[in-house]
Specification:
Rossmann fold; 16% strand
Amino acid sequence: MRILMVSEDLPGAQLGGLAKHVVTLSNALLEEGHTVDIMGRSDRAHARSAEEIGFQGRFIPGFDFRRVGWKEAQLGFFNPAKRPWFAARVARALSEHASAYDVVHYHGHLPMTGLYVDPALNFVQTRHDQGSECVTHLRFKEGAVCTETAARACAGCAHAAPGPLRTVLSGHAVARYRGETERTFARHKTIFVSDFLRRQFLRTLPHADLSRSRVIHNFINYRKLSQLAAAAQGPVQGRVLLAGRIDTGKGFAEFLAAARGRLPAQAQLLVVGDGPLRAGLEAEYSSEQIRFLGWQPNPEVVALTATSHVCVVPSVWEEPCGTTILEALALGRPCLALARGGNPELAVYESYPGQLRLAASMEELVTLLGEELARPAAARPLPATAGMDVFQALPKIVDFYAH
């Protein structure tokens, strides 16, 4: 098949989970004999964009996203026209190339994009986060999971005290956003990376037509991962790995606070990643027992995962389908996380019973960590194949393209 991938998260020197998903899927499709190009932001593009992101095919500069702010932060309300305007821009760019492809697969943060393309276009989008119904994509507010469903309640995410006018404007923006997304899902094919995401959308819009959608879990390139891990040594007793973007909702601050004074003497915490909260947390918690390593390239992260006694994913927001968990499970490492979001669904990928342990609270998560560290760090042989491998997901995705 001839496939055009589209994402506003590409290109970039440091790739987040969504961008890695696109590149992993695109390279796997190329390896299976399909023709794949990636379209992304023209304002970030350069001659070596494909090489920069690790893509083996052609990168197409498609759309300029430099005017992303629209002064929403200064005005204190969500602009009803902003997201549809950018969605239409993406749609125009991909539509100029669509005739050369059998399918266009969009991965991004504008779920209404399909509303602005030809209804006859074989258009598929993958939903990676809760941005189907939440304009901040996280459903996380004031340090806690947001359970509001009314559009006007979203005004509080644009302004601390929105008042009547801002509430009406933000409510209109969110209602339009959700309405256009609902119409897009009814018109075009949608992949949710977890059943949790599908249920969350239906909780907000219970009458939405999702008959054209499927749930296909996130994935990793297990072949590449296992090759990288084979060069690493066995697990180190007491080594605890926390990897991810150090930002609000990711739980690093909450975990470190809960673990203060409770870590076993032999524990060595390695915090891998960068983000706006890193400097403050490093200043407060860095010690001989807790080390902040900053951003690391993927081979280094894989090696650290493979040599860890246990991996902890402390996200307090509802992770849809975390690749950090999938990588730990694939490498045979015990993994601890909170029992929220799509995390419970990932137990199907355990290498052995009880590998993924889920806690109801951060305090319980620290308790589970102590229990894991009390056991010897066990090395486990890696299987030839794994259920979360991208090549296991490919037949489902290609079948969806064709129907």
